[in-house]
Automatic annotation (TrEMBL):
Record GO biological process: proteolysis
Ranges in coiled-coil conformation: none
InterPro entries attached to this UniProt entry: Cyt/Met_Dipeptidase (IPR051458), Peptidase_M20 (IPR002933), Peptidase_M20_dimer (IPR011650)
Organism of origin: Actinorhabdospora filicis
Protein name: Dipeptidase
PANTHER family in alphabetical order: BETA-ALA-HIS DIPEPTIDASE, SUCCINYL-DIAMINOPIMELATE DESUCCINYLASE
GO MF terms, alphabetically ordered: metal ion binding; peptidase activity
Sorted UniProt keywords: Hydrolase, Metal-binding, Protease
Length: 450
């Protein structure tokens, strides 16, 4: 049997160099961005998988149900040795937009910079390190892979994976596996691994308010004619009660694991200013993982600086509701829509429309594959056993995998630590933790055949 600790150690410098190469490709799948970069990053991932010895590597795509062309995904396969299980390794090669460039400490978010044991750059953690962890495991094993592998690296996760469900259905036979590893979450803390066993779902919706055919003078007409932006603010304020709990009736809440998330830790991780209070009631992990939350993501209205003294005839907001495990996304959307439409909007026309839904999931993490994963994690983290965590973020297609492959064990792993700042400026990857994630994945493949 090969010494996996030494084998992973030996491949890490090359893995890091290739990670930096991937980060330099700004593969943003959002509309309005140059999607040739997403194609380039799919090509780069395919080349890395071929180079790692995967014999059958293909770039595939399909169209979303609404007809928009899907982004390219990479499927690489190596058949299972006689009697061994097949393992599907998932990650995504698309990334969030860089956002506010002035908030980055580096000039170019798509160049990798190392500081204090971390690599900084857009996508370096979410989720290009997930891609490279899979490649690290394959490189470490070389010719002697003990399991069959299917590596599936998708290209539109950050934009909601609109075509993914169809893609998974179209390539169902190729993707079928006994164990599915989704490397797109994170660990409990630096030095403390975790298995993610629940994720919230998501409902993003637009709320539009119309009051008049045109804007009018706010002095002349103010006090009698209502203003669309003011009404929108009242609607948005109705999403929470005074405690900061979500006030939309009918949404599901469930209980979370007994883990304690110290308030001081949360305060520091989120960079909360002195005096700012936490919102919501109940234990911290429940508020973050198993209760709904509502956020106003953006508002279309005149900017403060350029605004005129006028009553606005129209305003629009995008609202995001994260939904608890056990909720159905379209039930939550119906509850949100009914709630907003039932508010007193002084007779204004209120239109609620769906942008995107995604289901939550819960994983029953019991059985031999989960034991194999826990042992692999404990070995990679020098004896520290993983905890089961929930996360407040969403990976909606996990529910699709669970439906299509009901007998597969789903292991949600990943490289993110609490300071990774995925989606924000100065996203980063902790190099020490990344090395452990790579080792844990190589060890997992061994443990699955033990
Ligand atoms: N990697 C995240 C999901 C995640 C978030 C895992 C937090 C662990 C902790 C993923 O890339 C993501 O951001 N997903 C989107 C899904 C949405 C576009 C449907 C999200 O949660 O906003
Ligand atoms: Mn991700």
């Amino acid at each position: 049997m090969i010494d996996l600790h030494a084998a992973v150690e030996a491949v890490l410098p090359g893995v890091r160099a290739d990670l930096e190469r991937l980060v330099r490709i700004p593969s943003v799948a959002f509309p309005g961005f140059d999607h040739s970069h997403v194609r380039d990053s799919a090509d780069a991932v395919a080349e890395l998988l071929r180079g790692a010895g995967m014999p059958d590597v293909r770039i595939v795509s399909t169209t979303a149900p609404d007809g928009t062309p899907g982004q390219p995904a990479v499927i690489a396969r190596k058949p299972a040795p006689e009697g061994a299980p097949t393992v599907l390794l998932y990650a995504h090669h698309d990334v969030q937009p860089a956002g506010d460039l002035t908030a980055w400490e580096q000039d170019d978010p798509f160049q990798v910079v190392e500081r204090n044991g971390r690599l900084y750059g857009r996508g370096v953690a979410d989720d290009k390190a997930g891609v490279m962890a899979h490649i690290a495991a394959v490189r470490a094993w070389g010719e002697d892979l003990p399991v069959g592998l299917t590596i599936f690296v998708e290209g539109e996760e950050e934009y909601g994976s609109a075509s993914l469900e169809k893609l998974i259905e179209e390539y169902r036979d190729e993707l079928a596996a006994d164990v599915i590893v989704i490397a797109d979450s994170g660990n409990w803390d630096i030095g403390h691994p975790a298995l993610t066993t629940s994720l919230r779902g998501i409902v993003n919706a637009y709320v539009e308010v119309r009051t008049s055919t045109h804007a009018v003078h706010s002095g002349m007409f103010g006090g009698t004619v209502p203003d669309a932006l003011t009404i929108l603010c009242r609607l948005l304020a109705s999403l929470h009660d005074d405690n900061g709990d979500v006030a939309i009736p009918g949404l599901v809440s469930t209980e979370a694991s007994p883990l304690d998330y110290p308030e001081e830790r949360l305060r520091t991780e989120a960079g909360m200013l002195d005096g700012v209070e936490f919102i919501g009631t109940g234990r911290i992990v429940e508020r973050m993982w198993t209760k709904p939350t509502a956020t106003v993501l953006g508002i279309d209205a005149p900017g403060a600086q350029e605004s005129a003294n006028a009553l606005q005839p129209y305003a629009r907001a995008k609202v995001s509701v994260r939904i608890a495990p056990g909720e159905k996304d379209m039930d939550a959307y119906a509850a949100l829509k009914a709630h907003l439409e039932s508010q007193n909007a002084w007779g204004a026309q209120v239109t609620v429309s769906l942008d995107q839904g995604g289901n939550p999931c819960v994983i029953d993490a019991t059985g031999p594959s989960y034991d194999a994963a826990r042992d692999a994690f404990a070995e990679a983290w020098d004896g520290v056993r993983p905890v089961d965590i929930g996360v407040g973020g969403s990976i909606p297609f996990i529910a699709t995998f669970q439906e299509l492959f009901p007998n597969a064990a789903v292991l949600v792993t990943g490289v993110e630590d609490p300071d990774a700042r995925a989606h924000g400026p100065n996203e980063s990857l902790h190099l020490g933790e990344f090395a452990r994630v790579c080792l844990a994945e190589a060890l997992l493949l061994r443990n699955l055949v033990k």
